[in-house]
Amino acid sequence: VTGKKTLDEETLDAIEEILITSDIGVETVMELLERLRKRARIKGEDETAEIQDIMRQELKSVLSDQVERSASDEKSFFNPGVTPFVIMVVGVNGTGKTTTIGKLAHRFRKEGKSVIIAAGDTFRAGASEQLNIWAERSGSDFVRHQAGADPGAVVFDALNAAVARRKDVLIVDTAGRLHTKVNLMEELKKIRRVMTKLIPEAPHETLLVLDATTGQNSIRQAEQFRDIVGLTGIVLTKLDGTAKGGVVLTILKELGIPVKFIGLGEGIEDLAAFDLNTFIDALFS
Amino acid sequence: DLTRKLDHVLKKIKGQGKLSEKNIADSLREVRKVLLEADVNYKVAKEFVKSVQEKSLGQAVLKSITPGQQIVKIIYDELTRLMGQSTASLRFANIPPTIFMATGLQGSGKTTFVGKLALYLRGQKHSPLMVAADIYRPAAIDQLKTIGKQLNIPVFSEDGKNPIQICWDSIQQARQNGNDVVIFDTAGRLHIDENMMKELSEIKEKTKPHNIFFVADGMTGQDAVKAATEFNNWLAYDGVVLTKMDGDARGGAALSIKAVTGKPIMFVGMGEKFNTLEQFHPDRMASRILG
Ligand SMILES: Nc1nc2c(ncn2[C@@H]2O[C@H](COP(=O)(O)OP(=O)(O)OP(=O)(O)O)[C@@H](O)[C@H]2O)c(=O)[nH]1
Ligand SMILES: Nc1nc2c(ncn2[C@@H]2O[C@H](COP(=O)(O)OP(=O)(O)OP(=O)(O)O)[C@@H](O)[C@H]2O)c(=O)[nH]1
Ligand SMILES: [Mg+2]
Ligand SMILES: [Mg+2]
After folding, report:
1. Quick one: which H or E segment has residue A210?
2. What is the DSSP letter of B220?
3. To test the ligand 2 pocket, which listed residue (A90, A93, A180) has its Cβ within 8 A of the most ligand atoms?
């Protein structure tokens, strides 16, 4: 596709393959291809811009007003101006929530903020031990109860500790759960209620952690978590692999939920602010 | 809702009287769309539709008074055939222990699968030993030890050894303790991480597992083929486990992986508890993908 200058059907097929295999999703891709066809008809055969640039432009116009919302203000995220700044991290099983919390805590610490982490996953084997290690690595306080405890109780204690110890940030880890499990989603609602009762504006951020290797099901996940517990942003993990995570473009377009951060590895530094232009460029690399 | 979409497409095909070649092409374009929405790999979906089209353009279908019914049957049969005729079975060593190895990308459900497989094998009157060969992920060994306590199944772990040594030493332990099946839990890794993939092939070379599994997340999208192919190139694994299928992911990755690697899907993970391992049923998977 690179270097081609005309939008013939063969090129459109090649573009379709690139877009679909980045998990953008059929509907959005069809919409994009239709715009390209119209554009080719209008501009005719003397289209001299690189196909890549045309694609970027069309993708950005498809996402038009969402592009503004997606401009993640990294600086203000890590300097929130409210204390304690409460972040709840949610998502389905194995997407990278616990690891992402370690990375976020580390970023806050680098900005000179004090952090406390709540072990809200009281269900999965080894969950609090795993989070404890990330708390130690990032120099964060840590609140946990025994295995099988009520996650709401852990969050209650952690929030009180955050206030009492005048911590800048509280990050709440939750157990992975499929969005289709009604009782588990109810539990999440209950955890949120515990926070809101203590601090009405809490949680100030609710981040959905999505795995870049997941396909169209990410859209269902985003819808359900948004409906049940509200979402302020997405963290897209495992982008250091070969998956492109294109489904977030459909999520941005259809649900207006912005990606705030991306995960680029298993180390504590492997977190970056999301940049839509960089992301779109990477789709074609 | 995708279930209603394909139903709608298939009803349209079934409801038509005589079909022209154009009718068939249009309907199959719709079917391709449904497959892509179900996360079936782009190339696999293209090939599938092409083969259904070829079969559908046969004179028998075009001359039939219910061509739509025939095409729907061709679609279901072709999909079920591609998914694998029947479940492959586990290999057991003539002289114990039999060695199992779980591999895959980060977070796919390997450690949980190791617990499920151990419980399943004990139910089949075996004496399993689970091996904590993930020395990287924080508290991975704690996780497996906790699972071992919950299931009352022994876990082998060693401080200060590399995963190849740990796996090797676990076999000697199994022989001493009379464990006739040994299951390695390995660290999640990227198929493009040469060093980590090399580690897996070194474990394979040294311990010669009888059953190597590629454990894949059932919600995986287009990337399924890349990872499955690379892991197969490095390990020539014996079978695939598709996890987290208790959600509403359509599971197109199942078709993609089977079609591209030819390796059988042996188990399906249907929950977080350890008694949720199920045999893979190709016909059920076909219905799920088609919605
Ligand atoms: N390569 C890569 N691996 C990641 C990334 N983020 C997390 N992981 C790995 O993904 C696996 C799962 O991470 P966790 O943090 O345990 O995921 P989780 O969402 O908390 O999992 P549950 O609590 O079980 O639902 C671990 O092996 C992590 O090291 C990333 O950005 N890149
Ligand atoms: N709902 C559901 N959850 C599952 C299933 N299998 C595993 N999980 C969950 O998925 C998450 C990740 O499982 P793990 O077993 O830790 O995954 P892993 O592949 O060992 O992860 P790494 O070692 O970090 O690569 C955990 O929350 C598990 O409880 C399944 O079949 N269904
Ligand atoms: Mg976790
Ligand atoms: Mg594991």
Report:
1. strand A205-211
2. B
3. A93
